[in-house]
């Protein structure tokens, strides 16, 4: 009888360390019945898509064993890989393998100071992150390199000497911590600097930590407003050195007022975290606040910079009395006034522009109408417009033109422009500029004199605007020999 067993993973890489452009090999092995070459698949992080082999990525499977090889590691390859085993029986099993990028240790989250009193025990901490594991060693400026050095390969035991002990611990995510314990602090230890060095095959990082006498804490730094309401505010801070004892934080605050009687501080509740809550404030009120730290030895100085803030305003009324606007609302009102003023100015300019345009159009149309009226009036019987004079002759000449119209029907007309000079025409009362104007625009009628054989002409018509005022002067030219 054939017994079938679901596939189960029995061995895999937990962490594989690699560098950029370096080869990385990840292995996974499973058992089960039946067993075949395709029972293991590789996936990336939480994706359901299987990794596809390529020129850079190789996958080899043989009898429940699978190897994923990256011939050249890229930065995008760093992360978790999932080995999935399934032989068609039951449900699949899986495990994760972490591909980590090698890096030298970097010391993190470490104070520059430690504190102790003479004859007491002192503990100095040092944290670092590194891939692969970071090892530690300690030294000081009095004794030089300490004999004790701790390696994570000896994780089961603590190294000890007559005065010092060192213990290291693997925290998580390639973060490591080392503690140097001074069993009995001497007078020479106070004020000394102890050097912590974290190292691996790729390099090391170091920091010097001064051992100080226990005392008051240092003032907090980087105090900021985390949130604000109509009756409360929450402050955020970064602690300073605690002075070697547990410290708490509190805020001193007061209303901003010109009344000296109200110029006194109130104290908030103490907080042992990096956030301080101040409650019971008045709405729409400006306050100034400063933060201090406290331990069993006393209080620190105020934080280097005090803060000003204004509580928010609650819409509505209290006890039937109107509430005072907040500074924020006052700013909004000022802004609204400015906007309104800009709108009024813009509308005024628009109205002025429209009026100017209307006046210009009116003037233009009036001039056009006057021009048409004058053109109708400003034609003599010969059709010549000479100068802006004798406007009173207009009506008379208009009648003369009507009387002579029947004479024009018996003459043949020519549209030819005749070339003649001022002397030939003989207009003694017309100056040269007026003559050039007439000669360039009039149309003549040719006629022959049977007795003398000379030719004469009559001006038939001419229409021309003399000036911008659209008025005209009519001058009868009459028959002109040439």
From TrEMBL:
A Gene Ontology term for the protein's cellular component: neuron projection
Coiled-coil ranges from the UniProt annotation: 387-418
Alphabetically ordered keywords of this record: Coiled coil, Disulfide bond, Immunoglobulin domain, Membrane, Repeat, Signal, Transmembrane, Transmembrane helix
Superkingdom, natural source: Eukaryota
Fibronectin type-III domain segment(s): 219-314
Gene3D superfamilies in alphabetical order: Immunoglobulins
CDD domains cross-referenced by the UniProt entry: FN3
Transmembrane segments: 338-363
Protein's UniProt keywords contain tRNA-binding: no
Ig-like domain segment(s): 6-98, 105-208
Record Pfam families: fn3, I-set
GO biological process: anatomical structure morphogenesis; cell differentiation
InterPro entries found in the cross-reference section: FN3_dom, FN3_sf, Ig-like_dom, Ig-like_dom_sf, Ig-like_fold, Ig_I-set, Ig_sub, Ig_sub2
Protein name: Nephrin-like protein
Organism from which the protein derives: Dinothrombium tinctorium
